[in-house]
Design brief:
By secondary structure, the chain is mainly α. It has a 3-stranded mixed sheet. The N terminus and C terminus are likely disordered.
């Protein structure tokens, strides 16, 4: 993901959510609708979430230090994980509490035109925000399905905004259905049921976000395409004859660590091996520009020793990646 694309989607979502949060809260004050109160808190939480994503992106740009020699790229993952916690606690749990209270103590919705009008406005605004997130995601999504994109994306911002906007749109529709049924039947319980459904929806989205960002925090390897490019760029067929084993790790969304043991010809001199390693590093960076940190260890490949190892991926002269 390009940083500019992610920032554009975040800013669009932030502007929409701030406007919607104010409108929803005004509608709650005039109508007493619990769906409106839950939705206003939801939009306010979403606004805070976008603020967290922007803050994480800013902090991730800091230069590496002796204490943090690989930089601060993972700050973006940390703040994305905080978003899932906020969405779960402030958004989901509050909505479930409000829905339960409204079902237990229902009351008729007053000034119905306020919640209905605000919900229609909010749906339109969220649609524009969601459209921006989709447009920016399509730039980097390639041939991946939307599910694959959310699961495999190394930059957390666009998947977070996409899921937030999707949840917001579905939540608004649920709120509109709940309010409409409460108005038609004269029974405020429907408003509470709509609020309860919004809470469940937000918690489900928060759990998905937490699971995906947890994987990024633990450390994910490069994507399959990038791994193949690195392999092809490393081996020159002359001095570097094969990759014995290789590991990759995302230090941040746009920074990759590559560590590999490479096989070199036994008769090569130290100068020739050093020159081959430098050339291989240049080829890797040209093929995969985000490969910023590269460690290549030369070795003599031993097929017999690799075959007898209990785990070829970790054995000297073994294979694997």
């Amino acid at each position: 993901m390009s940083a500019s694309g992610g920032t554009k989607a975040i800013v669009a979502a932030l502007a929409a959510n701030l406007a919607i949060a104010v409108a929803k809260f005004v509608a709650f004050l005039f109508s007493g609708s619990s769906s409106m109160l839950a939705e206003s808190v939801h939009s306010l939480a979403d606004s805070g979430n976008q603020g967290l994503l922007l803050l994480g992106g800013k902090k991730a740009q800091r230069e590496a230090t002796p204490q943090h020699p690989f930089g601060y790229g993972r700050e973006r993952y940390i703040y994305a994980f905080l978003v899932s916690i906020v969405l779960f606690s402030v958004g989901g749990m509050f909505a479930i509490y409000e829905g339960y209270e409204k079902i237990k103590h229902p009351h008729e919705i007053e000034a119905w035109y306020w919640p209905v009008g605000v919900l229609v406005f909010a749906i339109i605004a969220e649609t524009f925000s969601f459209r921006t997130a989709i447009k920016e995601s399509n730039v980097v999504r390639g041939k991946l399905s939307w599910t694959q994109f959310v699961r495999r994306a190394k930059a957390p911002e666009l998947p977070v905004v996409l899921l937030e906007d999707l949840g917001a749109l579905v939540g608004l529709i649920l709120a509109l259905v709940g309010v409409s049924l409460a108005l038609v039947t004269g029974d405020g319980v429907w408003d509470g049921i709509g609020t309860l459904c919004i809470g469940v929806l937000l918690i489900v989205i928060a759990i998905v976000l937490a699971a995906e960002t947890k994987s990024l925090l633990l450390g994910e390897s490069a994507g399959t395409d990038d791994i193949e490019k690195i392999k092809a760029a490393t081996v020159d067929g002359r001095t570097v004859t094969r990759i014995i084993h290789m590991r990759t790790l995302h230090l941040g969304p746009e920074e990759l660590l590559v560590a590999a043991k490479i096989a070199v010809e036994q008769h090569e001199t130290a100068d020739e091996v050093a020159e081959a390693i430098n050339a291989a590093e240049d080829r890797i960076r040209a093929a995969v520009p985000i490969a910023r940190v590269i460690y290549l260890e030369p070795d003599i490949y031993n097929e017999a020793r690799a075959a007898t190892g209990t785990d070829p991926a970790t054995s000297p002269g073994g294979s694997g990646h």
